[in-house]
Design goal:
globular, about 35% helix, four-stranded antiparallel sheet, Alpha-Beta Plaits, about 150 residues, alpha+beta
Length: about 150
């Protein structure tokens, strides 16, 4: 099992898409191991997006992610990193496939609803920025077997 980070960015929160994002993750069979709403400050944004420092879009990226609340999700499951990346779609909503979160709801590259870690290593680093170990909840998913158990 892998864990990864998915952020519903300010545009997703402001447009009321948090439930839609969570629903799509859960319907795929992924487990929400942690969840919180927070305001990202400039210091956290700088650490989170340090790979993009110096790029022309960096200031706009930081401005957006710090503009309103985000919802941070620790997502767990088989090949969670690749699965979440597939569900969210291409960074550019104009070319993201229909049926993906960005393809269905994204408006522009700078307003594409969600962020997700792009590798297992990035996922571990990003999860540590948003969640302490105590905030990640271990539990078994109920996959309907309990419905048919006799007492």
């Amino acid at each position: 099992m892998e864990r990864t980070l998915c952020l519903v960015k300010p545009d997703g929160v402001q447009r009321g898409l948090v439930g839609e994002v969570i629903s799509r993750l859960e319907k795929k069979g992924l487990k929400i191991a942690g969840l919180k709403m927070l305001m990202i400050d400039h210091a956290l944004a700088a650490v989170h997006y340090e790979a993009h420092v110096g790029k022309h879009f960096y200031p706009a990226l930081v401005d957006h992610i710090t503009s309103a609340p985000v919802v941070a999700l620790a997502v767990e499951g088989y090949r969670a990193v690749a699965t979440v990346r597939s569900l969210i779609g291409n960074t550019d909503p104009a070319i993201a496939a229909t049926g993906t979160i960005r393809g269905d709801f994204g408006l522009a590259m700078s307003r594409n609803i969600v962020h997700a870690a792009d590798s297992v290593e990035a996922a571990a680093r990003e999860l540590a920025l948003y969640f302490s170990p105590a905030e990640l909840m271990p539990y078994q998913q109920a996959l309907f077997g309990w419905i048919f158990r006799e007492n």
